[in-house]
Design goal:
13% of the residues lie in helices and 34% in strands. By secondary structure, the protein is mainly β. The strands form 2 sheets. Strands 1, 2, 5, 6, 7 and 8 form a 6-stranded antiparallel β-sheet that branches. The protein is globular.
Length: 102
Amino acid sequence: MKEITQEQIETKTTITTDNKWREFRYRYEVPEKVLDSEFDWLDKDVDDGFIYYKKRWYHLNEFMLSSHFTDWNGYHSDSFFSGTLIKVSKDCDEFKIGTYVS
């Protein structure tokens, strides 16, 4: 099997972002219905780390580390070819977010 290089990944992937820093949302900002249906696996004492992006709620714990997206800290796959990227600030108070399509 032939390995794919970092350069090949970057040239075949389109990343869309506005490059704005955003603050994480708190648990009380997430609708109760969403907490019950999408975050029932999350401990009740987790109060922050929530993200609302493109009409969908995420939690920081849903993002996986990746060596393929060198300028980003993590990704969340929507499909084999697309997903959401996140970059967390050094103080972990803010994040940048975007989408990728290969």
